[in-house]
Amino acid sequence: MDILDWLEIVILPVVAVVSLLIARHFKRDERILRSLEAVQRVAIRDAKKDQKVRIKGKIREQDDLLVAPISGKKCVAYQIEVSQVISSSYDDVEAELITEKKSVAFYIVDVNGDPAKILSRCQEISLHKELVEEFNRFDELPHTHMKVLEKYGEKATNFLGINKRFIFKEGILEVGERIFVAGKGFWQKPMDDSKPYFIMNGTPEEPMLISDRSTPTL
User: Quick one: which of 110, 106, 107 has its CA closest to 44?
Assistant: First the structure.
């Protein structure tokens, strides 16, 4: 019997309520959005070396693309979240089992036509989850979803052989999508003397922030 099976059977109602409130308050996506809002927004051409800025642009077409593990869509970045739903007499609690994000380097172009290259390392991503699927005890998981569980050593059934309840979420960044990026960078002039472009990268201490979600202050 794993810990989530045990919790599903004996979890105390008060623990369920408190856990739900904490999860809602400290939600990762909201923290990233608040951090994005706090960074000054500039046009790409006005970005300065090693100055933390927020830029907005449309993802440019490219050949190097990822395939999202659940939807199978082509993208420059994806983020998946898998939670097990644990029931109590008060509410259902989502216990997060898996989070995975992956990206490749890509370019965005702002309204002035200026490009910025977004490197793939040291990113914190908050994506709108276009795909949200809930599976109950009588639902069979598709092969794609089973592969995600198996990759992380998670089982689809509990110790009694009963299907667990899951919620699968997936967000992606597609070519042509407008996004926000915050972080530091530098200017680079191509070898062919074409137009310089801005390169944004992150560090473990100060990762880039990326989101396709909009708020009134972004």
Answer: 110
